[in-house]
Amino acid sequence: MEGTMSNFWVVLAYGCSVGLALLLLYYANIRAWAWHIASVALAMFIGLIPNPFGWTRPTVDLMTGSLCTFLLIWGLGELAFHSETHHHHHPPHRA
Fold it and tell me: Three-class SS string for 24-37?
């Protein structure tokens, strides 16, 4: 069966890309917003360009999709996990 792929590999690849992105968000603690914006932009660029001629195999689609998923989750995940409002702490008032 040319051109098909087992659902197991698809779920495994996308699950690993999501899991790796979430682990990286949790443990790496990279808060530079420029890297996250660049990650989302790169994911959109890779996902929206057509595959080069001769690269239309299911494995290429799976790798491209997994990479885009990783970059999007890592880039947008910073907003979800580390979006904390900055509270200004004032010294206590003395009576």
Answer: HHHHHCCCCHHHHH
pLDDT for 11-48, tens place per residue?
999 999 999 999 998 888 777 888 889 999 999 999 99
Among residues 16, 22, 27, the alpha carbon closest in space to that of 80 is found at 22
The pair phi, psi for residue 56, each rounded to 5°, is: -105, 50
d(Cα 33, Cα 55) in Å, to the nearest integer?
33
Q: How far is CA 54 from each of CA 60, 61, 74, rounded to the nearest angstrom?
A: 10, 12, 30
Distance CA 2, CA 17 (A): 25
Distance of CA 33 to the CA centre of its chain: 14
Which pTM was predicted?
0.77
**Which helix H or strand E contains 80, and what residues bound it?**
helix 58-81
